[in-house]
Amino acid sequence: MSQLCWHGGADALSYMAGYGLKAYLITQDIRQIVDEYGPNESIVSNCHVRAAYAPNQFDTAELLSKMTGTKTIQKATFNFSGSRLAPIANHMSATVDQVERPLVTPDEVMRLKPPQKSGEGANERITTPGDMLIFVSGQHTIYGTQILYFTDPVLNQRATIPPPTKFVAIGEAGIEPQLPPDRTRNVISRPEFVPQSPMEAAFVTELNGQLPTKPGFIEQLDLDLHEERKD
After folding, report:
1. pLDDT value at 104 more than 90
2. What is the largest CA-CA distance in the chain?
3. What is the pLDDT of residues 141-176, one digit of tens each?
4. Which of 65, 89, 92, 101 gets the most CB atoms within 10 Å of its CB?
5. Helices in the chain by DSSP H: which ranges?
6. Comparing C-alpha atoms, which of 48, 31, 40 is closest to residue 10?
7. Structurally, how many domains does the chain consist of?
8. 96/223: higher pLDDT
C-alpha cells in the first residue's frame, strides 16, 4: 500500500506498469491531489481502478457524479383548464418529456450508505459493509458493496504475512540481495564520452592532467587567441 504523499509520484506511475509494479493510492478527497500536483494532475488518469466511498467534500462528490455519467428519465407534465370550482375539469392534457439527469447526483454520492461499526476507540470494528462506487477503465460504473478483508479467508491469510525485512533485486544471475543506496553495480563504469577526433582526444587528455605528445586543444586555442590579438 502506497500513501499518496511522495513527490514525483505522478511521473512514477507512468513507468511503474512497465516494471510490473502496482500502486495502491489512498486519499481523502480530490482536493488533496489538486493541492499537491496542481489542476493538471495525472494521478487519477493513471489509475485503472478507482474506488470511492461517501465523501464529505462537495468538489469530490461533484467529480464522482460526473464520472458516473448521465441517464434519460421520463418527466410527465399535466395541464388543467376550466373552472376551478367545477367538480370535473373541462380539459386536461398530459405531456411526457425525455429529461437527462446525472446517474448519481452529487448529493446522492454524499449520501452513500456508510459501514456500520460497533465498539469504541481501539476496539471499534466494522460489522456491516457500506456502499461504494467502483470505476474501471472501459467499463460501466459499478455501484457495489465494500469488501471486508477479515471476512474473506484468502485475504485474511494474506493480511497475516509479515512485511519484508530484506530487499532483493533482479540481477544477471537472477534474484540477488539489493546493494546499498550508495553503491553501484559496476565499480568502474564505461566512459560516457568517447573522443571522435584528434582535437577532442587532446582536450580530454588535457582535462586528465596528462601531457600530450602533440600540441593539444588548449595550446591550439591559446595560439588562435594570440593571433587574433595581433590582428
Report:
1. yes
2. 121
3. 999 999 898 889 999 999 999 988 888 877 777 888
4. 65
5. 9-16, 30-37, 58-68, 106-110, 153-159, 198-207, 217-230
6. 40
7. 1
8. 96
Q: What is the tens place of the pLDDT at every residue in 25-45?
A: 888 888 888 888 888 888 888
Domain that holds residue 210: 198-230
The verdict on residue 181 lying in a domain is no
Whether 111 maps to a domain, the answer reads no
**pLDDT of 44-65, one tens digit each?**
888 889 999 999 999 999 999 9
Count of positions (residues) in the chain: 231
Residue 203 lies in a domain: yes
Asked whether residue 145 is assigned to any structural domain, the reply reads no
| Whether the Cβ atoms of residue 193 and residue 204 lie closer than 8 Å to each other | yes
Cβ within 8 Å of residue 54, ≥6 positions away = 109, 110, 111, 112, 113, 114, 130, 131
What is the number of alpha carbons within 13 Å of residue 49 lying toward its C-beta? Answer: 7
Grid coordinates representing 152 are: 474473506
